[in-house]
Amino acid sequence: MTTSPLERAPITSATDIDLSDWDFWARPMAEREHAFQLLRDLDKPAFYAEPEVSFAAPGVGYHALVRHADILEASRNPEIFCSGSGGATNIVDMPAEFIEYFGSMISMDDPRHARLRRIVSRAFTPKMIKQFEADVETAAAQIVTDLLAAGPGCDFVTEVAARLPLKIICDMMGIPESDYRYVFDRSNVILGASDPEYVSDPAAIATSLLTAGMELQQLVQDLAAHRLGKPTDDLTSSLVNANIDGEQLTAQELGSFFILLVVAGNETTRNAISYGLRLLTVNPGQKALWLDDVDGRAPGAVEEIVRLAAPVNYMRRKVTRDHVMNGNLYKAGEKVVMYYWSANRDDRVFAAPYRFDITRSPNPHVGFGGPGPHFCLGAHLARREITVMFRELLSRVPQIEAGQPERLFSSFINGTKHMDCTF
Ligand code: HEM
């Protein structure tokens, strides 16, 4: 249970901040920005005890990496800052029963990670990628047609932003339209379990996560069974039938990769699109600039949206041996949490970091992760989806504006659950 905003003391110095305290993540965005500014200005990263969760015991604690330079360095050195050993997507080590569903390559180190990424990347053939690109255009056009038919006042998140990535990832995997809602609800639970809208009882978080994981795994196993030996042209079929240099995914690997793709492909892009509309609404000058040259400005605008939206707030690594990085000591067994949202606002790298500037160049944001083996596998697809969605919106509904966003309560995902739109 979080305290009400009125009971919360203001943050005046870095010692007032505890990133493991759930209350911190309920604070308004302006307070969060101020807090991370204070943390970036410290001589060395703050160290925190791990958050309390019902399903796992806390470990030794973590350094909060909030500066761009630290995140680049840690991402580049995966043999020192590893992703395996308890999982990269959570601060507390994942219990063994979670690994079956959520232990895919994002939480592995080489050589296991490299093997999986190799098999999976080869399934993303140029032909398949070309097909996705055509599908994205058709789907975005239909969503905007439906928006115009529904009229102003609808929920932009559920009616527009969420629909595109959901349809694309489901089509890629061969999930029929009748199951979209099923996938949507389960991916909301997996990435939004801390929000009472998705899991109302905090004591039920662990079972809700495991149930959602099990149900998605069952879905892919049913799809896989149909494709085994009878290939179709979707990704599930390529993965089931992929036998690259004698390498093949096991049933468990296929299941957890499917969950990773469905969840990563859905929640992140949706949040970037919603955040993007909000940025355009509160920065009408930038919207006018984009409208002047919709296609020409799109690449810069999309990067700037991902920089400020930073839909994935953090990834975690475990330190494998004592190591000094940028002048600070990290001890074996400790963890580091890389706050991408903060690094993307680091004024050592970005001039006027809080300004939304679609012409910003260069824009070395870390919204898709830092340089290293885990750099987002879906970055190309995500950029494409955001570009096409805004092209449709700006050319067919240029007057569209976002209302106040209702934020997801989460420390991991910077999410918008609902947001009205007018036009
Ligand atoms: C705006 C949208 C997106 C954002 C902000 C985003 C962000 C990220 C981040 C921060 C990482 C982790 C990097 C690390 O640990 O170093 C990641 C990894 C990953 N993402 Fe994305 N992502 C997005 C869209 C997508 C999409 C559309 C897909 C799938 C189609 C996808 C699939 C993956 C996968 C499979 C990984 C794990 C890669 C690995 O461990 O080798 N992502 N993403």
UniProtKB/TrEMBL annotation:
GO terms for biological process: cholesterol catabolic process. Pfam families: p450. Keywords: Heme, Iron, Metal-binding, Monooxygenase, Oxidoreductase. The keyword Oxidoreductase applies. One of its GO terms (molecular function) is iron ion binding. It comes from Acrocarpospora corrugata. PANTHER family: BIOTIN BIOSYNTHESIS CYTOCHROME P450, P450, PUTATIVE (EUROFUNG)-RELATED. The lineage of its organism: Bacteria, Bacillati, Actinomycetota, Actinomycetes, Streptosporangiales. It comes from the Bacteria. InterPro entries: Cyt_P450, Cyt_P450_B, Cyt_P450_sf. Belongs to the cytochrome P450 family. This is Linalool 8-monooxygenase. CDD domains: CYP142-like.
